[in-house]
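Let's inspect a concrete specimen:
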Amino acid sequence: MLKLNFIESDNYLTPFADLKELNFVSHFKGATEKDFKKWRSEIINKRVPLISEVKKKINFDGEILEIGAGSCWLSAELSKIPEVRHIYALDFSKRVLQEIAPTIIKLLKAKEDKITQILGDFHKLPFNDSSFDFVVIDAALHHTNHLNLVLREIYRVLKSRGKLVAIREPIKSFSWPIKKKFSLVDRHVKKFGVIENTYSKKLWIRYFEEAGFNLSIKPIFFKGGPKENLIRFTPIRFFNGILYSRYYFIASSK
């Protein structure tokens, strides 16, 4: 297995960490090889095309921190950008970082020498002020009940002209109550008590502003499977924010 630079410390968890989620991801053994292949296919066919589209709009460079990194697929993709010097991939699950992430990083042919894994809690980031040019997030901000605290920590570690870029954060749309009721993912993780928050655009903006950010929520469409291509190339794209949500966040200091 691929060996990555890995940094851990004792007592890294804060009182705000979701211990039920940590227990779920650290001990869950229900995934089969078929499940893993399906998940791997989603990363290659949906998530990678999404960040490829974002990269057309944002020039990532310098030092980058990914929080809630999980499988580190996002760090893996960004590591291939020549202007990116180094990426610190932070997550609170040692198992995910050491057992799952190396497989994904190798699969995506990342520049693994540019990636350092950090075992940490995003409620208290183990970095000095003004350390990073970018903080990137894939579907992690909604996994806390202390969003203000997390955003203030991100603000603290960003350089004066640094930016926060977040993808796949849920936004309430007209169809959100229906999706919430029938979503197998939500039903599965909530059974274990995992935090799954969903906010309106207005509420997202308020949280970011309270932490000192200016937030832009921008629509994003990308080439993917049949569903994504239908949204991208038909009038259905004009129902973004009503029937579904396809957005990315970019935030900078005020």
Remarks:
- The radius of gyration is 17 Å.
- Residues 33-55 form the longest helix (23 residues).
- Residues 5-253 form a domain with the Rossmann fold fold (CATH 3.40.50.150).
- The chain has one domain: 5-253.
